[in-house]
Amino acid sequence: MGEAILKRIEGPIIVSRASRNFEMNEEVRIGDEELVGEVIRITGDEAMIQVYEDTTNLRPGIKILGTGKPLSVELGPGLISNTFDGIQRPLTEIKKKQGIFIKRGLRVLALSREKEWKVDIKARKGDTVYPNSIVGEVEETALIKHRIIIPPGITGEIVAAEKSGDYKVTDTICIVKEKGGKETEIKLFHSWPVRRKRPFVERISPEEIMFTGQRVIDTVFPIVKGGVAAIPGGFGTGKTVTQHSLAKWADADIIIYIGCGERGNEMAQVLEEFPKLKDPRSGRTIMERTILIANTSNMPVTARESSIYTGITIAEYFRDMGYDVALFADSTSRWAEALREISGRMEEMPAEKGFPAYLSSRLAEFYERGGRVKVTKDRLGSVSIVGAVSPPGGDFTEPVTSHTKRFINTFWVLDRELANSRHYPAISWTESYSGYLDRVTIWWENKNLPIMGLRKKLMEVLLEDSHLREIVQLVGEGALPEKERLTLRKAELIKEGFLQQNALSEVDAYCFAEKQYRMLKVIFKFGENAEELLDIGVPLFKIEELPIFNEIKRMGEEIENANLKKFDKLQLKMKKDFDNLRKEYG
Question: Which strands, in side-by-side order, build the sheet including 134-139?
C-alpha cells in the first residue's frame, strides 16, 4: 500500500505528492478521519484524488494512505431491501447509529458482518466450478433467492465444502483449487471494482418485453428485458414520476433505483412509498426485490459520480445469478454535471457546454453495461437500463441528450405541452420511438393478443390528427369534412382513453396486457361504427352526444384488471347505442 502527502486542495479534488506507489482508480484514505477518495490522475510524482466526502478543514501536509485496491462494492446477501449512498454506505444502518446525517469519515460496512444467513450449500468436494457457478443459495427475502456464485476469474476443483447451515458473510463455505495449485476460499460475499464491467460468456439479442403496465410504453414504445432507454424532459414534465411508476411496476426480478443528484424530497418520497407498494405478481412489498441508492443534491458531488457505477455493478452481480434486473438512473444529467465539475477542477480542456470531451465515451460505457447475456453455458440474465435526462430549458440538442440518443434504442420524450395540459405520462407520440417493436411482436402474439396491428392503426390516426390540427389552427374545425372531424374524435379517444394513465389511481396505475388490447379494440370498434353511421347520413354531433363516447374515455379508470368482462358490457352498450342511431336514420 502506498502513502503520500496532501499538497493542494481544490474543492472535492485534492492533489498529493510522493504518490509513486498509487495506481489509477485506487481507493485511498485521507487524514485521521480516513475520508474515502479515488485516484483519478497520476502525473509524475503527483496524484489527483476525488474525495467522496466533504473536504472542509483538510489541510496540506496530512497523510494519504492507499488501500492497494480499486474503488469496489461488496456483493453478497444483505443487498436487497437496503438503501445505500453513492459509495455503498448503508443509510439505514447509519441512521440507527448516528441519526439522519452522515458524519464525515464514518465507515459502516455495506454488508453486516454479524447477521447469520441460512445457507443451502450446493458445492460438493470434487466438483469443477467456473466463474458464476452456483455454490450456495440464501433465501434473502420471500421474493429473492440469493445465489452464492464463484467470482469472475476463478476456475478449478472444489477441495473442501461445508454443510448447509447458518453462516456470516465472512465465513468460508468452500475452497477452490485453481490451476497451478492456488487455493481460494469462497465466502458468502466478494468485492468487485465499480468501474470494471463483470465478464460474461456471450451477449445475445433481447427479445422478451419488459412489461411495465404503462400503456403508452408497452403498446406504443416498448422496451425489452436487456434493453436501454432514456426519458428526456424539462423541469416539471414528470420524469421522476414516470421513473417511479416504471420502478414500481416493471416486470423485472430485481429493481435498482438510483437517485443521482435529485432533490432530497423526491428521494424521500421513494423511501416512503416503496415499502408500502405491493408487487402485482406476488402481493408482497416491492422492497423485497428492490435496492435503493440515494445520492441527493446536497451530498458530495463526487459521490454522485460514483453512484451510477455502484448501481450498475450491483445490477451485473444479480444478472450473473440469472435474474432480470431493471436499473433506473434519475438522472444521468446530474451525473454528467458532476463529471463537468470534476473536469473543471482538473483544468481539462472543456468541450461543448463545458462538459468534458469524454462525456460521450462515459455515457457509452454506462449504457453498454446493459443487455441480455449468457453468464454460463446454461444460464441467462439481463440488465435493463432506463436513464432520465434533464436538459436545461427542455433543449434536446444539448450534449447529454444528444449523446445519449446514440447509445439507446428507446427514447421516451416528455412533452411540455402535454404536461401543462395534465396529460400524464407526458410521453410525446410524435418525438418518441422504440427500436424493439419487431422483437416484442412475438411476445404479444404468444399471448394471443395481436396488438401490433392495432398499434399501427393508432399511430396512423395520431399522425393524421397532427396534420389536421395544423389546418384547424388556420381555418377552424368547422371547415373540415365530417370524416376528418371524426379522425379528431378518434384521436381524442386514443389520447384520453388510452395513452393517458393515472399513476395515483388504484385501478389505472397498472394495466394488464389483455386490458391494453381490449381498450384499443373498443376504441377502433367505435371508429368503425361511427364511419358506417356517417356513410348513411348520421351527423357527427349525434355520435359525439352518445354516452358511450365519454365512457370509453373513462374505461381505464372504471374497468379493473381483475374484471375485464366489463369490456363485453361496454361493447354491448356501444352496439345498442349505434343500432338506435341506425334505426333513427335508416
Answer: 145-149, 134-139, 117-121, 165-167
Report which residue type is found at 440: V
Instruction: Summarize pLDDT for 275-313 with one digit per residue, the tens.
Output: 777 777 788 888 999 999 988 777 788 888 899 999 999
What's the per-residue H, E or C state across 63-87? EEEEEEEECEEEECCCCCCCEECCC
The whole-angstrom separation of Cα 83 and Cα 305 is: 17
β-strand pairing of 190-193 with 35-43: unpaired
Long-range pairs, 522-526, Cβ under 8 A, ≥24: 522/552, 522/555, 522/567, 522/570, 522/571, 522/574, 523/490, 523/493, 523/494, 523/497, 523/498, 523/552, 524/454, 524/457, 524/490, 525/571, 525/574, 526/490, 526/493, 526/552, 526/574
Instruction: Provide the 3-class DSSP secondary structure of residue 384.
Output: strand
423 CB-side CA count, 13 A: 21
Q: What is the C-alpha separation between 497 and 500, in angstroms, rounded?
A: 6
254, three cell numbers: 430485481
Residue 484: its H or E element: helix 482-494
Output DSSP code: residue 511.
-
Q: How does DSSP assign 337-354, residue by residue?
A: HHHHHHHHHTTPPB-GGG
CA atoms of 480 and 144, how far apart (whole Å)? 58
pLDDT at 21: 87
Report the DSSP beta bridge partners of residue 146: 138
Cβ-contact 303, 295 below 8 angstroms:
yes
C-alpha distances out from residue 496 to 62, 95, 350, Å: 63, 44, 45
Task: Count Cβ neighbours within 10 Å for each residue of 452-480 and write b for 16 or more, e otherwise.
Answer: bebbeebeebbeebeebeeebeeeeeeeb
d(CA 109, CA 89): 7
The most confident of 233-242, 256-265, 529-538, by mean pLDDT:
529-538
Report the C-alpha gap between 586 and 580 in whole angstroms: 10
Strand locations in 355-473, DSSP E? 371-376, 379-389, 410-411, 433-434
CB 493 within 8 A of CB 542: no
Q: What is the pLDDT of residue 23?
A: 93
User: 135 pLDDT exceeds 80?
Assistant: yes
> Can you tell me the distance from the alpha carbon of 519 to that of 525, in angstroms, rounded to the nearest whole number?
10
pTM: 0.94
CA distance 409 to 332: 16
